[in-house]
Amino acid sequence: MKLIPKALILIILVFCFVSCKKPKAKFKVMEVNEISFSAKNTYDNPYTEVDFWINLNGPDGLNYRIPAFWDGEQIFRARLVATKPGIWSWSTENTTGDRGLENKKGSFEAISCSEEELVENPNRRGFIRAASNKRTLEYADGTPFFYIGDTWWTALTQIFAWGKEDGLAGISFQDAIAKRKSQGFNGISMIASFPSDILNPIWESGKLVKKLAEDGSTPFYVDTKQSWKTAPDYTQINPSYWQHADRKIQHMWEQGFVVQLESVRRHEEWYNENQKEKDAFTNYIRYMWARWGCYNVIFNWVHADANNKQHILYRPMVVKASTKLGKPPYGQPRAVMTPRSNLEMGWLDLDPSILEIHSWSNFGRDGECISGLREMFMMQDYAPLINLEPFYPGLVAGFNPRPAKMNDTEAAQFIAYGCVLNGGALAGHVWGDVYYGGCAPASRRIKGDIPPQDPQSKAFDKFNSASMGRLKDFMLDPGHDYRVLQPARNHLIDPNEEFQCLALAPDKSFGLGFIAANYTKRNIINLKANMSYIIEWYNIDTGHWMSIITVITDTSGKLIMPDKPDTNGWAFRIKVS
Question: What is the pTM of this model?
Fold first, then answer.
């Protein structure tokens, strides 16, 4: 028998090894690759004792530092996302002293999404960020993103049941998302957890003591023998609550939604706890970033929207978390809910890197919020703007002052278009109504034709809320580029009124406007002189453009506006012909 040369045997063995080894796992760009680890050490409290991070490296020198999270028992998880096609590798940082967590590594391949997949789910375009103009938002591929969110503060609790209609909202979470998606919404504002609610139910007692997971889990351990102010132990997180919430966050991502996620509501007296618990606020922010930083999320430091000192008391905890953690894993934008504007409440005096979005919240709902946003637009250190808590249809006047001569629907539409155009809130707008807690709250807050605990399912076709989706269509219309617009109220005759809104391009070649219901038009001044402008009306109720009119400005640049088609609120566009 003829012997096979050793060199040939080696070649055969190498060939077999290369051809037979396990191929790399493949994921689409922006698809979550979840890696699980089993700790070998025993911990009294893995949530606070283990600071576990993953380094993720991709093509063209891309590198992300991803926090891992404890998910019960000995399990830790990391959720990795490839932001562009190519080979990605990951490795654990050796800082825990746990052989089950350290010296681990792996790799996977990311492949591009098809154009059809990008249209189906815009989240596949990449993580949203502030655009280079620092006025608007965009996906990582440069596609403009205009946020239109609904307000469901309790979305992650059993009030919005998963796959069932037996929660207080009266509609399944999935059906609620589908309804708003059909109306043009692309976001939801929510509060991540309500730690003390089992003992101190907000908005209403009785049936509303349900801000828990669907299995009854609380977000933190709660000692029911204590006062509600001290009952939650913020150092002891409960993974079960967050596991139930996972599927909702994932579902919203799959449906193309961006979550505006707020940590806790202001009434939680976390700031009065002992130092160990106050320090755990950093763990909490890190935990949310670890679980949900793999999705398109606007992270909001705290929901502190009342005219009191709670937002100031939370501030040291926020600053400490920001200093230790830096930015979210994929650079998602951060905001903070404050009464009135971030500028007026002093948050912009802090390190500017703490916020990527500036906002107004909760007060000035009769139109004052518009001037507050405009003040931030005019700052030297500006950022994309948004009104996180505008006018809420269905609330009584004491909680919700309404502009004169308008009903609730008309007022909500005016505030929306006013904030965006006169206020420069080009990042988008959040819709809110009386159903903000998943159902109508205590009767002292709601108007007579809405019964207490009226479910969220009744909200979707009230107050013409679908017109918010049409605001997005109006701004993103291909007939103009909204990203260059600037508030131009000084170009209106009688600029002291907010009820006609106007934003112009710097060269005055085009502009977008709005005239509120039951208010008459104002002529526009200081445009291009002796220039022919096309005026188009936009029906905010149907989303249709109509009545193209051509008007020539006079020698001073005055444009005589035509009358509105009727007394309703109307948007319009002017454009050099």
Answer: 0.94
| Burial grade of 547 (CB within 10 A; 0-12, 13-18, 19 or more) | middle
Residue 1 above 50 pLDDT? no
Q: What token pair was written down for 496?
A: 């002291």
Closest residue by Cα to residue 392 from 316, 477, 342, 450: 450
Domain ranges of the chain: 22-112, 128-476, 486-576
486-576 under CATH 2.40.128, yes or no: no
Give which of 320, 224, 218 is closest to 264, Cα–Cα.
218
Structure tokens at 219: 């977000």
Q: How far is CA 509 from CA 329, 476, 527, 531, 550, in A?
A: 40, 17, 8, 10, 14
- Given this model, what pLDDT does residue 239 score? 98
Q: Which two tokens stand for residue 560?
A: 């005589």
CATH code of domain 22-112: 2.60.40.10
Give the separation between CA 333 and CA 131, rounded to whole angstroms.
Answer: 11
Whether the per-residue pLDDT at 171 is higher than 50: the answer is yes
- Burial of residue 297 (CB within 10 Å: 0-12, 13-18, 19+) is buried
Cα angle 317-323-329, degrees, rounded to a multiple of 5: 105
Residue type at 143? Answer: T
Res 214 pLDDT > 80: yes
Q: Is the pLDDT of residue 509 over 70?
A: yes
Helix (H/G/I), strand (E/B), else coil: 270: helix
Q: What 3-state class would DSSP assign to 315?
A: helix
Give me the mean pLDDT over the 100-127 stretch. 97
Q: 């008391």: which residue's tokens? A: 313
Residues 6+ apart with CB under 8 A from 315: 347, 350
Domain covering 128-476: architecture: Alpha-Beta Barrel (3.20)
Q: How far, in Å, CA of 328 to CA of 299, rounded?
A: 8
